[in-house]
Amino acid sequence: MCIPAPVAAALAVVQGIGEYKAASEATKAHNRQATANNINAANARDLQIRQLGQETEIELANLEQEKLDAQLEMLRTTDKALVAGAEAGVSGNSLNTVTNEFMRRGLMANTASSTDQTNVAASEVVRSQGIQSQALSRLMQKKAKPSALLAAVKTGVSAGTAYNAFDT
Fold this sequence. Notes:
The protein is an all-alpha fold.
C-alpha cells in the first residue's frame, strides 16, 4: 500500500513538531536542573565561607588571648624583677637592664602575635577566594531554548521531501 503524499507530509510535520517539543522539554529539564545545581553551589559556597569566617574569628581570638597572656607575663616578670631587686638592694642601670629585657621579650611576643593575626586575616581572604572559584566551577550553564523558526524550516523541508518522495 502506498502512502498518499499529503499524508506523508502531514506525518513529517507531526514528527517535526514532536521533535521540537521533545527538545524544548529536554532544555527546560536541563535548565531546571542547572538552576537547582547553581543554587546548591551558591549555598555550599556561602556555608564554607561562613565556616571559614568562624574558624578565623576563633583563631584571631586565640591569638589576641596569647597577646594578652604575653603582656601579663611581661608585667609579672618585670614586677618580680623589681621586687627581687628591691629586696636585694639592687637598683639603677643593672635593674633597668633586666626589666627592659623582660619588656623587650614581651613586646616581641606581641609583635609576633600581631603578625600572626595579619597572616590569618590574609589567609582568610585567599581561602575565601578559593572557595568562590570552586563554587564558580560547579555552576552549570543553561541551554538556549530551541529555535522555533529553525524547527519550522526543518519540518517544512522534511514535509516537502516526504511529499515529493511519495508523490511519484
